[in-house]
């Protein structure tokens, strides 16, 4: 019996299933105005410079210590818009 089969058998005996998760609630909101996401690092949030945020969103963001905390979806949209083709080898 492999380790996966033993784990499944143990879960059946104990009656608990570790795979069910609850929705996480973030602590720090996204710095982009109008976005409802969370910028916590555990939820995929990042921070970008104020200059980069101004290029993308104008003045529609909240800055902290010359950085803007953004959620994962805002970071991905910023990253896509800044992708340059001349850096590919």
Characterization of this structure:
34% of the residues lie in helices and 9% in strands. The protein is α+β, with helices and mostly antiparallel strands. The protein has a domain at 26-76. Strands 1-2 form a two-stranded antiparallel ribbon. It starts with a helix and ends in an 8-residue tail after the last helix. 16% of the residues are buried.
Question: Could you provide a short overview of the structure?
Answer:
The protein has 89 residues and is an alpha+beta fold.
From the structure above, extract its key features:
single chain, 89 residues, two-stranded antiparallel ribbon, 34% helix, elongated
List the helices and strands and how they pair.
Elements: H1 3-14, E1 46-49, H2 50-57, E2 67-70, H3 72-81
Antiparallel strand pairs: 1-2
Number of strands: 2
- Ranges where pLDDT stays below 50 over 5 or more residues in a row are none
The biggest sheet amounts to: 2 strands, antiparallel
- The spatial strand order of the largest sheet comes to 1-2
Q: Helix segment count? A: 3
Structural class: alpha+beta
For the residues shown, what is the average pLDDT?
85
Approximately what portion of the residues adopt beta-strand conformation?
Answer: 5-15%
Apparent shape: elongated
Helix content: 25-40%
Query: Which value, in Å, is the CA radius of gyration?
Result: 20 Å
* Element string (H = helix, E = strand): HEHEH
Distance between the termini: 48 Å
């Amino acid at each position: 019996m492999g380790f996966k089969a033993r784990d499944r058998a143990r879960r059946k005996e104990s009656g608990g299933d570790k795979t069910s998760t609850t929705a996480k609630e973030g602590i720090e909101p996204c710095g982009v105005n109008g976005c409802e996401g969370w910028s916590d690092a555990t939820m995929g949030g990042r921070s970008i410079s104020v200059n980069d945020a101004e290029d993308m969103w104008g003045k529609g963001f909240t800055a902290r210590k010359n950085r803007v905390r953004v959620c994962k979806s805002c970071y991905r949209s910023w990253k896509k818009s800044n992708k340059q083709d001349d850096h590919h080898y």
